[in-house]
Amino acid sequence: MRRRTYLSSLSGLTLAGAAGCLGTSTTDRGPVGSWAEAEIEFGLPPFENAEDLLESYRPTFDWLESGFEDVDSVTGVTTTSYSAVVESVVNGHTELANLSPVTYVLAASDGINPLVLNWSHGRDFYRSYIATRADTEIESLDDIAGKTVAMVDPLSTSGGMFPRYLLSQAGLDVGDLDTEPADFDIEWAFGHDASLRALQEGHVDAAAYGDFQHPDNSDTIVKLAESDPIPFDPIVARPDTPEDVRTAITERLLEIPSERLEDHRIDKFGRVDDSTYDPVRDVVEEMGVDIGDLDEN
């Protein structure tokens, strides 16, 4: 199946990005353009509303496209699940992807190449929050028994895996990727913003999301628990990416000016290696999740 045919078949997919001048011949292309066939497609999980996500990443797409004369376009590809975006880059249907830490850990054995680490608010880590409304009677994680909790996606790190781990440590049955919890119900929101909104609008009793989504100085939303630090998401390249291409794209991302990221969800890109995600591996192993679970979701 051709790459674009595959991508157009993904559920809920949206493409948008920077387009340069078309027409560079194959023989004139350098390493990056030859590897990407002049068109870099960049997969994005459903962190938030697809339109907002693409707009946020557009300066990064522009920066990449302008850095390689042999690349005609860099296009953002959004999907409605975390498993779809990792499937696309593992199978080479997209060249690059921003993966959640959990999906990176689960897919690392498939040969994907971590290039850079996202930074946000001056940090290279974030936390998972579980919160409730001030008008509920929930005062601790124990009180979530019998309640409904909004979460982001089963394979979201801060909106799925880590909050379930926190609840399991509080003694609740949290189920797994194939079974629902015995002690509470989950409403999957498929977005950090949507998870918080479900709580604010009274559709659920509690919600899990990344700390970057937590409202500032709120009198109505109360944090119940937070996770240990989680390394931010990596940007990865598909498994067959040559070393010179990995180096070129990595250096280009590390050089992006801060003003390009003023409206982005991140501040800058930093260096990364596989061991950065060992704390995430520990939680994934504790929860009994493996690569087979990624394939099934």
* The first-level CATH class name of the largest domain: Alpha Beta
Structural class, from secondary structure content? alpha/beta
> If helices are DSSP runs of H or I spanning 4 or more residues, what is the number of helices?
10
Mean pLDDT, to the nearest integer, reads 88
Order of helices and strands: HEHEHEHEHEEEEHEHEEEEHEHH
| Uncertain residue segments | 1-14, 19-27
Strand content: 15-25%
CATH architecture of the largest domain: 3-Layer(aba) Sandwich
The CATH fourth-level homologous superfamily of the largest domain: Periplasmic binding protein-like II
Number of E-type strands: 14
Largest sheet: 7 strands, mixed
Assembly type: single chain
Head-to-tail CA distance between termini: 21 Å
Total domain units: 2
Please describe the topology of this protein.
Blueprint: H1 3-9, E1 14-19, H2 31-36, E2 39-44, H3 50-67, E3 73-78, H4 82-90, E4 96-98, H5 101-107, E5 113-119, E6 125-126, E7 128-133, E8 148-151, H6 157-169, E9 185-188, H7 192-200, E10 206-210, E11 221-226, E12 230-231, E13 234-237, H8 243-254, E14 268-270, H9 278-286, H10 291-296
Parallel strand pairs: 2-3, 2-4, 8-9, 8-10
Antiparallel strand pairs: 1-3, 4-13, 5-13, 5-14, 6-12, 7-10, 7-11
